[in-house]
Amino acid sequence: MARPSDQQAKLPGLFCPFPEGKNPEYSDAAKSRIKASATFSGKKDEFHSFILSIKNKFDEDVRTFRTENSRMVCLYNLLEGKARRALETRFSSDTRPFSGVAEMIQALESAYGNPNELSEALDRLQRLQFTVNGKTDIVDFLAEFDYLTATGRVPEDQMKHTLWQHIPANLDNSLLTKTRDESVTYEVFCGFIKDAVHCQKRSMRQTQDSRSSDRSRRAPTKTAPTTAKTPNKTGSTLSPRVMLAEP
């Protein structure tokens, strides 16, 4: 039997069905707080972000769904093109219908998911490295790091030390100590890194400006060329432009 993919292994916990198909938290007065604007048409590189989007929708607006079928309809309405056609037969079937949202997601994952997502994320994470004077901004770097560690399932208690391994060792000597300080959360640790990068970039700019000023002061001063004097018949020297006419 084939080993289930990483995404499939997480599905039961992400989309647990309502007991007996009814939502005990449902409220007629509840209002939707997240507009489900993201749709999925079958592009494999968009599958992961779509799953996260629909999960956030179901978590935040859980009180607006009366039954499991309500969630299933919501998910189906967010599908387009070949992704919708992939579920259409079973969604409308009377003999073999989907049991819930989790089973619908599993069907989509079988067609559009990446079974090697975890290992590929860890490979990319291993190669990820930040340099202060590189092309990647620290905010973009941290966003990529968060995505890869989440996809690669890096344990939460290892996040700070793992991040420290992917930044310059001389960025801030106190950062290593902070990786062991339990009072420093991962979010606060990221803030320390951003500040350290800002300070180092500022120091680099100041050093560059200072060197430019030194070179300017040492540069030789250019003098204006002098005009040669032409002696006249009386022995005086006059500029060619101001020589007197001969009598």
Describe what you observe in this structure.
The protein has 247 residues and is mainly alpha-helical. It has 2 domains: 6-112, no CATH class; 117-216. The protein is built from 10 helices and 2 strands. It has helices at residues 6-14, 47-60, 68-77, 81-91, 101-112, 117-127, 138-151, 159-164, 175-179, 186-218; strands at residues 230-231, 237-238. It has a two-stranded antiparallel sheet with strand order 1-2. Helix 1 (6-14) runs antiparallel to helix 5 and helix 6 runs antiparallel to helix 7. The chain is elongated. Mean pLDDT is 85; it is low at 1-9. Residues 221-234 have a biased composition (Low complexity). Residues 201-247 are annotated as: Disordered.
Q: What is the strand and helix layout of this fold?
A:
Layout: H1 6-14, H2 47-60, H3 68-77, H4 81-91, H5 101-112, H6 117-127, H7 138-151, H8 159-164, H9 175-179, H10 186-218, E1 230-231, E2 237-238
Antiparallel strand pairs: 1-2
Work out the strand percent.
under 5%
Determine the structural class based on helices, strands and strand pairing: mainly alpha
As a percent range, the share of helical residues equals: 40-55%
Q: What would you report as the Rg, rounded to the nearest angstrom?
A: 34 Å
The poorly predicted ranges are 1-9
Region (Disordered): 201-247
Biased composition (Low complexity): 221-234
